């Protein structure tokens, strides 16, 4: 698992806008961006897509389009397209993504990867392609014109941007981010298959935790987050189960994936995806309790 500054094992989801928008409207909020253009740090990513989509639903800013019988199309795409006039959220998977404002006639081809990832979302905002960008915290500080990883396209200083808080209002990016985020996302992890022999797994962990090796994965030149995030300070081992690591992020992902579906079907799908283990644990607990009562009564 990646570890960031001050031993943090998570990062924040933020919305960034141009400072001039905040100057014109001190009470600026997300609802003011209805009908405008959005930039996203990756289609189906937690910070770039899932959290903003779920916020639009939870806040009541955008109604969820209902699914009809035999309808297999995702509803999150339609929801975003209904709120914003156009969006740029490229996907690494061919045939996926929402790229109506990415250029190239709105298609998600490799040309649109100019705006891929969190760096791409910030670039999308900086060059005026979009009016608001959803991405992970720390991106603007690194890639603005006065940032430590400024790029040739970094034409504006950090002071020219502001955080847009979920409850409304803007905040300087240099200020405390508390109460101005859309949620926390668990740090990125490196995973291997569960069937991997324990001896091999230990070797993999040992190599990844080796300082001389891991430094090559997140050295300063890694501004575009190749392999690991460029904000990674260290790699740490975690022994938690996948759902424990993902926490609320997994819940939000599940909700976004099943937007518009019948709740009973969503529950069944969720159980099939692994939550049945919780039921098994409860059954075991009940069995042991009954056994204890039986033995105690003898």
TrEMBL record:
Name of the protein: Transferrin-like domain-containing protein
One family name in Pfam for this protein: Transferrin
Keywords: Membrane, Repeat, Transmembrane, Transmembrane helix
Species: Ceratopteris richardii (Triangle waterfern)
TM helices/strands, residue ranges: 274-295
GO cellular component, as recorded: early endosome; extracellular space; plasma membrane; recycling endosome
PROSITE patterns: TRANSFERRIN_LIKE_1, TRANSFERRIN_LIKE_4
Domain Transferrin-like: 1-264
GO biological process: iron ion transport
InterPro entries: Transferrin-like_dom (IPR001156), Transferrin_Fe_BS (IPR018195)
């Amino acid at each position: 698992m990646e570890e960031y500054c001050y031993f943090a094992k998570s990062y924040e989801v933020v919305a960034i806008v141009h400072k001039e928008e905040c100057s014109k409207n001190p009470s600026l909020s997300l609802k003011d961006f209805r009908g405008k253009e959005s930039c996203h740090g990756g289609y189906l990513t937690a910070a770039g897509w899932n959290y903003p989509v779920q916020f639009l639903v939870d806040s009541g800013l955008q109604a969820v389009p209902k699914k009809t019988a035999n309808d297999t199309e995702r509803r999150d795409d339609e929801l975003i397209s209904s709120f914003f006039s156009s969006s740029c959220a490229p996907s690494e998977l061919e045939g996926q993504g929402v790229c109506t404002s990415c250029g190239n006639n709105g298609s998600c081809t490799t040309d649109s990867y100019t705006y891929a990832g969190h760096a791409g979302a910030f670039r999308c905002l900086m060059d005026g392609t979009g009016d608001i960008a959803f991405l992970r915290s720390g991106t603007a500080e690194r890639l603005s014109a006065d940032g430590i990883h400024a790029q040739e396209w970094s034409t504006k200083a950090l002071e020219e941007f502001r955080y847009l808080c979920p409850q409304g209002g803007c905040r300087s990016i240099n200020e405390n981010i508390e109460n101005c985020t859309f949620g926390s996302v668990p740090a990125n992890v490196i995973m291997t298959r569960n069937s991997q022999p324990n001896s091999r797994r230990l070797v993999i962990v040992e190599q990844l935790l080796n300082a001389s090796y891991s430094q090559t994965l997140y050295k300063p030149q890694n501004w575009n987050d190749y392999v690991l995030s460029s904000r990674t300070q260290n790699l740490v081992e975690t022994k938690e189960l996948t759902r424990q690591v993902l926490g609320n992020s997994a819940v939000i992902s599940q909700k976004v994936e099943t937007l518009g579906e019948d709740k009973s079907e969503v529950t069944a799908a969720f159980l099939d995806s692994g939550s049945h283990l919780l039921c098994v644990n409860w059954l075991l607990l009940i069995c042991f309790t009954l056994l204890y009562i039986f033995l105690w009564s003898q």
